[in-house]
Amino acid sequence: MIGNSELAREFWETGKSATCPIYDMHGHMGVFHSIHFPRPTAEDMIRTLDEAGVRMLTFSHHWALFSPDQGNRPAIEAVRRHPDRLRAYCLVNPNYPENTAADLAQFEQHRDVFVGFKFLAGYHGIPLTDPRNAPAWEYANEHKLLVLTHTWGHSVVDGPGVLREIAGRYPNIKLLMGHSCHGEWDAAVALVRDFPHVYLELTALFDDRGIMEKFVREAGSDRMLFGTDLPWFDPHQAIGVLCNADISDDDRHNICHRNAEKLLAPFLG
Amino acid sequence: MRFFDCNAFFGLPMKRPLAPVATAEELLAEMDRAGVERALAWHVAQHDASPQMGNELLAKAIAPHPRLVGCWTILPNQTREFPAPQAFFQQMREARVAALRIFPSSHRFLARAVSLDSWLGPMAERRIPLILSVRRGMDWRDVYDFLRDVPDLLCILCDHGCWGQDRLFRPLMERYPNLHIDLAQYLLDGGIEALVADYGASRILWGSGFPESYFGGMMMALKHARIPDEAKEAIAGGNLERILGEVQL
After folding, report:
1. Spatial CB neighbours of B80, under 8 Å, sequence gap ≥ 6
2. How many domains does chain A have?
3. Contacts for A9-14: CB closer than 8 Å, 24+ residues apart
4. How far is CA A242 from the centre of its chain?
């Protein structure tokens, strides 16, 4: 048994919990060039969500990461097929600023599908603070949306310094730091302490022993969000880490669902 | 399920990690907390300081703890830094050490038969497993070259990364029947089921990557993988038990 709490026992025995549903705030969908996915389709992913007790996944389609005009469409269709289990982030690619207005119009047209935007500056090669990204940030700020952005420690396009500027500039958004400035942990904690609308999203951190305890201790579990990059990472691996980490069941509830429920409430009616 | 970890270490690394585990006793306490029965363990000094010093530290540390089986580190022996294999294997038996590791890039040699010849033949004959870590000491080209040189050696490929390595290790699984892989960092959704479907369970070993990774992550993933129970038991510990049971020192 990987942990000695009541919740850990339930997850260990059944793979899911009746009292602790999971909201996965960082997913994708579809095949991708650099990896083989055994379960890449929306239906495959729903199966995974069922097996691990994940009530809802918010995601961006892999195609949209590179070509929003192509990729936002399958995301919309997937949410339409599974409205109780999926919501999407809308992508914009600042390398093609001439398309941004159309992407924002698509968001406007599908407000029931999208909960906000996803930024991928590390791949797009353009800093989050670049003026070409501004229309999407301003739209998100005006409409009080969620923004999940890929972040990485020591990055000049989406590292802590850039995020500090963004957090100060757009106080109405909820800023989900995907991967929590991976490797620059103290800077990520400092951002959460300095800005009440900034959150630590945990995708790819479940492989780093000690980080759950550090974040709970220094930032608080009320600012941490469950995420897996699904279909990249098995949610059971993440659940196993949360059960094994030296944190309380109350922290586990915050991370798995309470924080996400508050963030998603305005979008779920 | 009985868990026997093929990939855990203790000792203080030169660079401080988030959650260091200094001693064998601390490792055992964490194993108890997670429900891990046994571990094939090594000491980080084998990599960070020197194999000789690390091997000695490991032997002393595990001596009082039968739940820990040792894994030492070797070097090419053209420099005469180690005893001849026969004498070294005798030392392994006395220290309850049943597997070996190499860290070629850190220890400044090439993982090729020409470097390690004096070890490899006797190791293959005695079924002594050699652990290769992609995280520490070998890149994929090294692994490919090495396995081409030593197809008869029982190798366990560890720490192969979480960002999609199937296209890198599956060709090796298909070419080399003596190659085994561990699950530390194999976070891929549906990955365990896909591997078992394609290759069976007998060459897949549960490893934690502890203390850099949590024990619980891949334990939970394995426990709830959609594979038969007997495959889970084999991966959790049965395969490693079988491998170590075949070692002749």
Report:
1. none
2. 1
3. A11/A239, A11/A240, A11/A243, A11/B220, A12/A243, A12/B220, A12/B223
4. 17
- Does residue A4 fall inside a structural domain? no
Q: How big, in percent rounded to 5, are the helix, strand and coil portions of chain B? A: 45, 15, 40
| B188 → chain A, closest CA residue | A233
Q: B4-245 in CATH: which number?
A: 3.20.20.140
Q: What are phi and psi of B28, to 5 degrees?
A: -65, -35
**How do the domains of chain B map onto residue ranges?**
4-245
Q: Mind listing the pLDDT tens digit for each residue in A230-249?
A: 999 999 999 999 999 999 99
Residue A14 domain flag = no
Q: What is the pTM of this model?
A: 0.97
- Mind listing the pLDDT tens digit for each residue in A159-180? 999 999 999 999 999 999 999 9
Tell me the chain B residues in contact with residue A235 when contact means C-beta distances shorter than 8 Å.
189
What is the distance in angstroms between the Cα of B92 and the nearest Cα belonging to chain A?
31
Asked whether residue A26 is domain-assigned, the answer is no
Condensed to tens digits (0 to 9), the pLDDT of residues B184-202 reads 999 999 999 999 999 999 9
B171/A contact by beta carbon, under 8 A = no
Residue A80: give the domain boundaries: 34-267
Residue B61 has pLDDT above 90, yes or no: yes
Q: In angstroms, what separates the C-alpha of B190 from chain A's closest C-alpha?
A: 6
Among chain B residues, CA nearest to A231: B189
The amino acid present at B130, given as its one-letter code, is: L
